[in-house]
Write the structure tokens for this entry.
Amino acid sequence: MEKEEVIVVKNLYKSFLDKVILNGIDLKLHRGENLGIMGKSGIGKSVLAKCIVRLIEPDSGEINVLGKDVLACNDTELDDIRKKVGYLFQGGALYDSMSVRENLLFPIRRTQFVDKKHDSQELVERSLASVGLLDVIDKMPSELSGGMRKRVALARTLILRPEIILYDEPTTGLDAVTSGEISELIIKIREEYNTASIIITHDVKCAKIATDRISIMEDGVFMVEGTYNELVHSDRKEIRDYFI
């Protein structure tokens, strides 16, 4: 039996001035699945992710997240959806003026999130432990390496116990070893938190390790999808070229 669909996007369009970015794109994400999205730079992968949680308003189409029509939601309903959809931004987006502890407490305070089993400090410690960084809890972001900042940003994403995580280039700017560690961590997070994820990446190693299925975007639509092994052995050179 096919798993529940937690995100369904149908016929989504988005243009900026006269430049078409999303040209009637369709997407489905199933519960517990890690879906990779690949494509050339500037082609609209991040725009699609931001449309899913309405950080960008699409021009037309349908977006359903966890059974809710996102484009019909009022502000309160949209906030409820965003609590269930974690977004790991490309740069990590930590607050430089706050310690790691304060960075993780921020979304709890902003959303007034309550966990009946754990207080806020316990949630911070559990999230940092999940990414192997409990020992940096009182450091400042400037004291951390790039890989550590990525892990802290992921811990902050986990703090609200999301059902879905959108990863935007989670390994960009990292060395090969750290990139592999982050990719393995994405798998660990799915096992520990039972998340479904969309992983936008140019990193072939990340795509191989962390995804169950990959969709390749071109000209505002997905031109092909399949597993890593299916695509890397495609009879079409333009598909194989993404994995060189």
Q: What stands out?
A: The chain has nine helices and ten strands. The CA atoms of residues 155 and 190 lie 13 Å apart. The chain has a mean pLDDT of 90.
